[in-house]
Design brief:
By secondary structure, the protein is an alpha+beta fold. Helix content is about 35%, strand content about 35%. A four-stranded antiparallel β-sheet has the order 2-3-1-4, with helices on one face.
Length: about 90
């Protein structure tokens, strides 16, 4: 099953741009996902299990690298929001 996740990150840090950019850069290095960054969120589409695994690992990576952050997400199972051309 495909999954689309919309994710916004709010670091507990005055210098919030580096953690957000770092997380997005990390996401873009992950295989098997389509990632599109918008001004207020990042949209991730892929296989359900892969998306959920990457988000879990990504949150761990983010906290270990930059400290605490709030992640706000929306999930739409069974839907591909990003066509292959956006990859």
């Amino acid at each position: 099953m495909k999954l689309t996740a919309e994710l916004s990150m709010y670091p507990f840090n005055e210098e919030y741009i580096p953690p957000i950019k770092g997380f997005i850069d990390w996401l873009n290095q992950q295989e098997g996902l389509l990632v599109s960054t918008k001004p207020t969120c990042t949209i991730i589409t892929g296989d359900y299990e892969r998306v959920m695994h990457v988000l879990g690992e990504g949150m761990r990576y983010s906290v270990e690298t930059w400290g605490k952050a709030v992640f706000v997400s929306k999930f739409l199972p069974g839907f591909e929001a990003l066509p292959e051309a956006d990859a």
